[in-house]
Amino acid sequence: MKKLFLILGFIAAILAVILAVTPLSKLAYIPSVAALIFGVLSLITSKDNKQYKRSIQLIFLMTIIALTLTTYKALFTEAEVGNTEQLEEKEDQLEQESLDELDNIELEELDSE
Amino acid sequence: MIKHCIFGTIYVNTNVINTKHITMKLLLSTLVVLSSFFSLAQNKTIAAGEKLTYSASYNMKGLLNELAEVTMQTSEVKTSKSTLLKLKCTAVTYSKWDSFFKIRDLYESYVNPKTLTPYLYNRDIYEGGYKKFMKYKFNHKTKTVASLKRKTRRDGTEWEEKKTVKIGSSTRDLVTTLYHIRNLDIHKASIGDSQNFKVLFDNKESIVTIKYLSKETINTAIGKKECYKLSIAINNSDVLKGSNNNVLWLTADANKVPVYAKFKIAVGSGELKIKSAVGLKH
Which residues of chain B make contact with A71, given a CB cutoff of 8 A? Predict the structure, then answer.
């Protein structure tokens, strides 16, 4: 049981750290909470067993790092649009092409209205 | 007696003919009124120089992730013979997503500024490495669309496909339909009313049903607004899931600005929230 909680705690903590560095950082809250729960559970089940103490500390450390990073990202990074230069160039090129084509198109309907 | 009988018969016949005439006239006038309402509806809502900015989010297990910025912009363009209205929609992913799944989508339509009848439609999309270009050239006299599809193969070479598609008299492209919905007289409709629109997408005509659900007041980035709540459904398509899961909120004023949209697709749900609106007509 002790080992199971420890392994699950590790998996959840690693997942939280990985998610925290990706753009999906908000999702890191879910494994973080799970890692904390498993960490506490393994702390209770292992009691004073020194063999597990360091591993449990590592789980908590990783979870805290993931949570701090996620919260920082959620509070201080604003969503910004990336480089749109290519799109703007394409827009200009398309407009020119379209206007050339619209010159030939029959616009009688437009004129008659 | 005979004469009387004959006259009597004639009298009855003219009565029948008269009733037929009246019914025909009524039918014709209704048709004229209806067709003028649907196809030649005057543009009272959309002006050149309008820019609406939205933020698109994807809902993942209850956590909303901001994905992209969507803009809807109008401008005036001049050809040698006339002045047209250009309707443009773009979708651009936020920079944090660019290295994972970059989206640079452009949809534009050149329309008659008075009636919003489309003449030319361009769709140029780039979605995570997938490229596609579509062009529709509308010919309303022959009720056909000359379509051009351009795709890029995996090795980088391009291929083209040209087609002529038959369309109905009221068929529009996607962008024009979006703007046309804003131009509808929703204030005259009552709750529960619905209307069908024919939309040309990927060389196929689909029927989109818009239903007026209710009036609701919601908080938006441009203030607290009273809105018309409309549901959107595409017949014979699996793109949008459910019947009342795809909802659009349009402000209940003369501008009918789309301020909020919720949609459900095969892999989850998302929403579109307005960030700013400038250059509105009213």
Answer: none
Q: What residue has token string 């067993």? A: A49
Nearest chain A CA: its distance from B54 CA (Å): 12
- Return the pLDDT at B36: 39
CB B27 within 8 A of CB B256: no
CA distance B179 to B109: 10
In this prediction, the answer to ipTM > 0.95 reads no
Q: Looking at the 3D structure of chain B, how many domains does it have?
A: 2
Which of B61, B79, B97 to mutate: most A Cβ within 10 Å? B79
The verdict on B94 touching A (C-beta cutoff 8 Å) is yes
What value does the mean pLDDT take over residues A43-54?
A: 81
pTM metric for this prediction: 0.78
CATH number at residue B106: 2.40.360
Side chain identity at residue B279, one-letter code:
G
For residues B45 and B25, membership in a common domain is answered with no
